[in-house]
């Protein structure tokens, strides 16, 4: 259900856009432009001093991928567009702009534009669509319908860090106020690999599932001590499908997802700790082999998108990941940095990409840490050494702290 909601929020109008320009290669002249003369905010019903249903229409010179979500404190609607040129378009010139407490728009990071509509109360999205422009205008009409709801029905995007990205460049609109600090500790989803009828790698009586559960418990304690909230995807030896692991993280509004593994590979092929981030195109043999182990075919789905066109889903995922992927990679770098400082040995190429389904969450920075390989005697000794485990947990917790600070700083920079 949660995912359906997320899908609703990340909306793409036209599958044809799959062939559209990639971020970065976006020619400035080809940017979609907003046409304010064919755009408006309209309220339904009489003004009785209470929030009313609102219709927002924007005419843009060409259809663009977009996504819609809400934030609270104050309640606001955020629409991210794959870039729309708002330059020269003054928010005060939009018909009906006075129906909302505040309205801002602008470019907020390369390839993306953002519109923030402050709302008179909590709302829910009823409809979002892009259709051919009407009334003689060229391009596409982006139409959005939102309706007032009770506070407890107000569903906001829960990521504290994303909330910091809320505002377009202040230069575009002086009314932009700095957001408050995140109102809760960072929440880290810890995902001990395998479990239940899937023991993972096995060497003698040792199973990866059991070793990872033990390590996850120690890491959770370390993170809790460091002031973070921990959200485990499993607490015992039960089988949790991959998609469920991501759903748990999303439902719990995790800010970061760390999957823990210690797989098996034929002797000599792999040894040492390594950190994986999502990469669909990774194709070295060992990585492929690991991906197969992690993704028995009945679990490959990752997310339940059965009723959605594959191509559209891929584009949606890519769009959302534009923002998440650099954050995942950023975290991996912090892990390497801290492990190095702690003198903990790693694979000679410690950060790699892999198409592990569990890393597929488009909206939560995710890494998979192979703590070592159970098939390697040195790695096995490490995993059974309490000092090594404590040092590694501490280093990962420090990496989370360093990354969080860096991430907030970057989010702040993107608004300047
Ligand atoms: Zn594994």
UniProtKB/TrEMBL annotation:
Domain (MurNAc-LAA) spans 246-401
* Pfam hit, one: AMIN
- Say which domain of life the source belongs to: Bacteria
Q: Which reaction does it catalyse?
A: Hydrolyzes the link between N-acetylmuramoyl residues and L-amino acid residues in certain cell-wall glycopeptides
| UniProt cross-references to PANTHER family, sorted A to Z | N-ACETYLMURAMOYL-L-ALANINE AMIDASE, N-ACETYLMURAMOYL-L-ALANINE AMIDASE AMIC
Is Hydrolase one of the keywords?
yes
E.C. number(s) listed in UniProt:
3.5.1.28
Q: What is this protein called?
A: N-acetylmuramoyl-L-alanine amidase
- Which keywords appear in this protein's UniProt record, sorted alphabetically? Hydrolase, Signal
Q: Under which main EC class is this enzyme filed?
A: hydrolase
Q: Which InterPro entries match?
A: AMIN_dom (IPR021731), MurNAc-LAA_cat (IPR002508), N-acetylmuramoyl_amidase_3 (IPR050695)
Give the taxonomic lineage as stored in the record: Bacteria, Pseudomonadati, Pseudomonadota, Alphaproteobacteria, Rhodobacterales
Residue span of the signal peptide, if any? 1-18
Coiled-coil-forming residues are none
